[in-house]
Amino acid sequence: MTDDEQDRPDLLRLWLEFDVTGHAPKVEPGHITLDGGDLVWRAFGQGVGVTGYDEADCLQLIRDKFKLTLRPITVRVADVTWALLERRSTIAASAVALRSVMVWRGVWYPSPNLNRGPVLPSR
Fold it and tell me: 73-78 and 106-109: which strand pairing?
């Protein structure tokens, strides 16, 4: 078990996948699309990793981060570890291994949280 997978009984690590039907980029034969799709696709298209006090806190952190209405959840993995994440999404697992901290409170995928640290509770 790595440092990022240590048991944190006070925090819940969630991996969520959302229904993004109708938000995918339009792919034309013979063209390369680097950042297609709308904001919903860009935020939720590959899944979201978040750590919070409970599921309600995690969902609020996602809303606060992306400023979007949440789509219906299609996959929910509680207490996700890097090894479990690697089985769901190798892209996300690689990004997390290189740039994110799963044990800090906040959204750790797709937005790396190393540049600002954990989200602290409001006082």
Answer: unpaired
